[in-house]
Amino acid sequence: MKRTGRRLSFLKQSNLVLHSPLRHVDPRVKLAMCLCVSMGILLPLPRLVVFMGIYLLVLLWARLLPSAAAQVWRLKWVLLVLFVFDWWLISLNLAVTITLRLILLACVLSLVFATTTPVEFTLALEKLGLPYRYAFSIGLAFHSLGLVEEEWLSIQEAQTARGAYTPMQLSLKPRELRKTVQAVGEYVSLVVPTIVLAVKRAWSITEAAYARGFDSPERRPYRQLRFTTQDVLLMAASLLVTVLLLFWR
Amino acid sequence: MSVKFRLEEAGFAYPQEGLGLQPLSLTIERGEGLLVAGHSGSGKSTLARLLVGLIPHLYHGCLQGEVWLDDLLTAQTPLWELTRRAGLVFQNPASQMLTTSVEEEIIFGLENLGLSQREIQERTTEALRTFNLEPLRRRSPQTLSGGEQQKLALASILARRPPALVLDEPLSMLDSTSALDFVDTLNSGLQEGRTLVICEHRLEYLQAIKGLRTLHLNGQQTGAAENQPEMTAPLEDHRRHGLTGDHFQIQVHHLTVERGGQRILDNLEFTLHSGEVVALVGPNGAGKTTLLRALAGLQKAHGLISAVESGRAEPPSLGMVFQNPDIQLFNPTVREEILYRLPQPDLELYDWLMHILDLERYAGTPPLLLSEGEKRRVALATTLMRRPRHGVLLDEPSLGQDRNHKAILRQALRHLADSGQVVLMATHDLELASSADRMILLSKYGILEDGPAETVMQNQAAWDRLGLRVPDWVRG
Question: Residue A162: closest CA among chain B residues belongs to which residue?
């Protein structure tokens, strides 16, 4: 008696890491930290390795290492394929550099998404000058990724229950190509309801938001963002590191 | 403050389906209550959207006539100004959740009114208290049961205190206590001068609202829906359609389900017998859906579930019809949906199912274009076409079904049981539940009562322990 089906891991939204010291840092500062760390991709390989080492220590301090590792693990097949192709077609040096850069970018997302709720994220975008309707939509999209996965699992369960879907292994071996085509066909019973539900949900959410005055010019946010001393220090450190990176590259 | 609605030959047709609302003129006075009745597809939801201005602001299609909300012509007034005056609660609460916590869901609508932080806090607390949502305030709306989500959708709109309320099937997922409490809230609102428009199939609950005027909508499908299919012919035939089995029992021992560190079902023990229709009743969040999923083998659980037939035990083969039919339907026509992946379909059984479920006229229609009630019947037909050996599990089968179709559903379930199958349905609809052979009352603490439906219905002590009120008209 267990839930059937495999998880669509790449769509899984990171869980909030409540005990992280970054949990209550202003989301704008976390976005600045993200930008700062992303600058690391400009570095050549040896310096990139050193920078990643330092970044790992930051993740360790922020208690975000498991969350970042999970993020990278979800991309393992993409990273592997890119690594093999780059090595095969160009050089090992380039393959390592590109893979490390992608790992860095994947880890960067944890700084914000593992420590920030969609409401805080929306508020931060709004404070940064993005019109509310766009900030809200981005926040909603961020929150909805996890829901798509939940829905995918429910659909898989329902279709398995009625015999319209049989989980099958995908294989690239020529001898098993027919099975693979069949396995892809199995997904039709999952993909169609997923798309239909996603479109319906998007529409229902639009209606629900407008029915609660989403387009009101009188809106006053309930939650407020305020810079603390820790926020100012972290922001200053981020700026400093960004400047250093620009010179160091 | 109260508002008045006025429709002048107002109607609407959707571009894809052509369905919608046929032109009508109507005035709903300040402080008046209007019940909109009509079968599935008669245009109740379209009328609700027209009244608050979502049509034509968000919908493209053919709008005729004019809709006025006091002195505001809805087509020319911004939506935020209209929704300040008239709040709309939609049919399906699960898809209306915008935020990541129950509390935030209520706050969202209040922020848009431009209220102070203190006022928002006060109104949020009050709304949570009114709908008994305080213990859930930090929970994600997506993790709530259907009934809890419906309460939250209602709380989110009522907290905005609109002078008029338009409600599209607000009671469909509520348990009897929540439904009766909500009707009390509506009654007080009406006494205070709030204008009220309710589109609802569970009409009996609304009898408590005084002075409610009724509007009967007659959509394009009126004639067809009112003609109930002949239910006599299949009675003699059902056994040879293969939905039959010898006498068996489905035995459940020590069934326990835990999710997220929380015990949802605790050590349940019961037996289902072939040939019986069993209603599973309990308050919102009691674990009814979880129990059905465990019986269908879709939920990780501890314990033993087995079908025992002639002394031989095996895992039961039970088909399940889910609460949301959209997750099952994907084929281009109803016929293809029902016959999907059946190498040698029994077309006699197909015809029988189409007949008893009143789906014959929709054989060539895309299932996703049907009404919620019709989709639910298609989902039931797809499950039954596969001839589950031991029976069928239904999660809230009467949702979206009008009175006629509920009667059809009841008879269809009776036929299944008569053919030797087990029918287990989780439902809030006490009228449907009371027509079952047997009733199981499930609470968070386990099974409180299990016995013949008639006896359980009269056992007031058990209902008190369950925390559910039984309306008098159900006991009748």
Answer: B383
